[in-house]
């Protein structure tokens, strides 16, 4: 339908927000749209509405009426086109209605239209006539309440009842052309009256149809799961009904689970409690707990993707160190390897032995991961000769930030710090190894090679996704105990 674009805006924003209500459990993430966010949505909505209304296909109106001179008539008004439309943002509001949803109220709406008219009477002497008209409606007010909820299958619902809509066309003026218009225009006030009651009756049923059918149908198609990648999906389901109280607050499951699975055993993690926070300084907020990251780590670990075999060819081209037994690092850390296999390319297989641990704290994120590192040399015939196997626990910390990127969006940035490594030797094929020296060496290598490289990438960061036409504006990240909080304004970018 014609209001699709406006619908789409609602859908995009609501889709991030609404899903099924189940018995209360701690949410893996929470969301909020504040009043300033609603004000922004109102402004964008009105802009879109303005463009859409002018393209609106208004259904023909027909009915019976009693008019002076000709008596009882059947009339048809057809080919109605809207020639101008104005709805002032200053007298329009989009606000929360506690326990219900949202209320949209607007006064001072005006509109002018052009169309064709035709009538015929029911009288003894048959009369019919036709022509065109110019009409304008001004000082019009509209108030509607959108009831927002969730259905059993976990999707957001939106609905309206007759009591949720009121519409009153203030002044209606009409001028007829063609036929015996010179005569009818003498009674234009009466015709305007007929028109006014027809508009008043039909507008709310049109709006209700848009909301109850079109908008509701689009919401019903929303997926309550989002695909991260081919390994992991995330469950957006609401774990409590959304609340409407000055802002829209939502609480979501936020569990990352293996792609393609239906009901599954839940990942064995507890969800940190997100403290209540009255912050309304930005358009919207997200509070994301450790739980989301830990369930993600768990899924990736179980899927066996937390493994990496490094050879010179698989290393990123900007990694400036060589995987060769003759390099300084190997000479210092594993002198036996260099002695036994001089100047040979190496392969280092790294795999996680457990899901990584992530803890949000203030001011940094603590993370640790237990790795098995197997070192091989690569023979001329490409076969591998095993050298050593190590068990390494890496403890690190990270602080997160946001920057604006070249594409005009925002990127998540990070700086990591190595806290310590615990190294134990699992197996050696190159004789006795000094693990203390190796531990110091590995820590040195991490600090001076790996960390600077990760931080170089972290400076540029990772672009934060935009939801359809909605772009994040100047997002700010704050870390709390067990969660990270993202506050952002939003920017709507029209498709064309
Ligand atoms: C998503 O979370 C809800 C609420 O905990 C749960 O009922 C539903 O089964 C979950 N869906 C999947 C695919 O895990
Ligand atoms: C890494 O190499 C080992 C054999 O050396 C192999 O078993 C494993 O599947 C490889 N892992 C990846 C991620 O390529
Ligand atoms: C985070 O790491 C720091 C530095 O190692 C440590 O002092 C702190 O106790 C850790 N916090 C948590 C919650 O693990």
Describe the structure concisely:
The protein has 496 residues and is an alpha+beta fold.
Q: What does this entry look like structurally?
A:
The chain is α+β, with helices and mostly antiparallel strands. The chain folds into 2 domains: 185 residues, Super Roll (Bactericidal permeability-increasing protein, domain 1), CATH 3.15.10; 268 residues, Bactericidal permeability-increasing protein, domain 2 (Super Roll), CATH 3.15.20. Helices cover 24% and strands 43% of the residues. Strands 2, 3, 4, 5, 6, 7, 8 and 9 form an 8-stranded antiparallel beta sheet that branches. Strands 16, 17, 18, 19, 20, 21 and 22 form a 7-stranded antiparallel beta sheet that branches. The longest helix is centred in the middle third of the chain and has 33 residues. The protein starts with a helix and ends with a strand. The chain binds 2-acetamido-2-deoxy-beta-D-glucopyranose (3 copies). The site of one 2-acetamido-2-deoxy-beta-D-glucopyranose has 5 residues, from loops.
């Amino acid at each position: 339908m014609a209001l699709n674009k406006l619908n789409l805006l609602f859908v995009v924003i609501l889709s991030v927000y609404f899903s099924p209500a189940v018995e209360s459990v701690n949410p893996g993430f929470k969301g909020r749209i504040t009043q300033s966010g609603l004000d922004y949505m109102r402004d964008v909505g009105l802009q879109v509405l303005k463009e859409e209304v002018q393209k609106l296909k208004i259904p023909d109106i027909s009915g019976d009426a009693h008019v002076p001179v000709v008596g009882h008539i059947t009339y048809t008004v057809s080919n109605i086109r809207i020639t101008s439309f104005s709805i002032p943002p200053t007298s329009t509001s989009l606000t929360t209605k506690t326990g219900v949803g949202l209320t949209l109220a607007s006064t001072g709406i005006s509109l002018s239209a052009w169309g064709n008219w035709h009538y015929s009477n029911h009288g003894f002497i048959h009369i019919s006539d036709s022509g065109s008209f110019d009409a304008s409606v001004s000082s019009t007010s509209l108030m509607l309440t959108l009831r927002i909820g969730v259905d059993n299958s976990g999707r957001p619902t939106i609905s309206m009842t007759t009591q949720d809509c009121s519409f009153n066309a203030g002044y209606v003026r009409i001028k007829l052309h063609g036929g015996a218009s010179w005569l009818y225009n003498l009674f234009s006030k009466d015709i305007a009256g007929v028109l006014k009651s027809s508009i008043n009756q039909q507008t709310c049923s049109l709006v209700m149809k848009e909301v109850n059918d079109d908008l509701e149908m689009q919401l019903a198609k929303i997926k309550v799961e989002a695909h991260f990648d081919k390994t992991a999906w995330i469950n957006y389901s609401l774990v409590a009904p959304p609340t409407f109280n000055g802002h829209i607050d939502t609480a979501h499951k936020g569990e990352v689970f293996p792609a393609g699975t239906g009901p599954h055993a839940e990942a064995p993690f507890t969800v940190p409690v997100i403290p209540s926070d009255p912050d309304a300084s930005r358009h919207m907020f997200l509070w994301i707990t450790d739980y989301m990251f830990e369930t993600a780590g768990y899924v990736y670990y179980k899927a066996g993707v937390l493994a990496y075999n490094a050879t010179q060819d698989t290393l990123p081209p900007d990694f400036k160190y060589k995987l060769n037994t003759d390099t300084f690092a190997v000479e210092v850390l594993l002198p036996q390897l260099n002695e036994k296999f001089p100047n040979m390319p190496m392969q280092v297989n790294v795999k996680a032995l457990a899901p990584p641990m992530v803890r949000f704290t203030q001011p940094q994120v603590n993370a640790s991961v237990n790795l098995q590192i197997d070192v091989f040399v690569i023979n001329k015939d490409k076969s591998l000769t095993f050298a050593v196997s190590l068990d390494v626990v890496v403890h690190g910390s990270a602080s997160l930030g946001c920057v604006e990127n070249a594409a005009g969006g925002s990127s998540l940035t990070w700086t990591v710090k190595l806290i310590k490594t615990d190294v134990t030797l699992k197996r050696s094929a190159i004789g006795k190894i000094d693990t203390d020296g190796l531990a110091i060496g590995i820590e040195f290598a991490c600090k001076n090679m790996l960390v600077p490289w990760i931080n170089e990438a972290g400076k540029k960061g990772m672009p934060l996704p935009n939801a359809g036409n909605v772009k994040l504006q100047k997002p700010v990240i704050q870390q709390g105990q067990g969660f990270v909080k993202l506050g952002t304004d939003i920017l709507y970018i029209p498709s064309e």
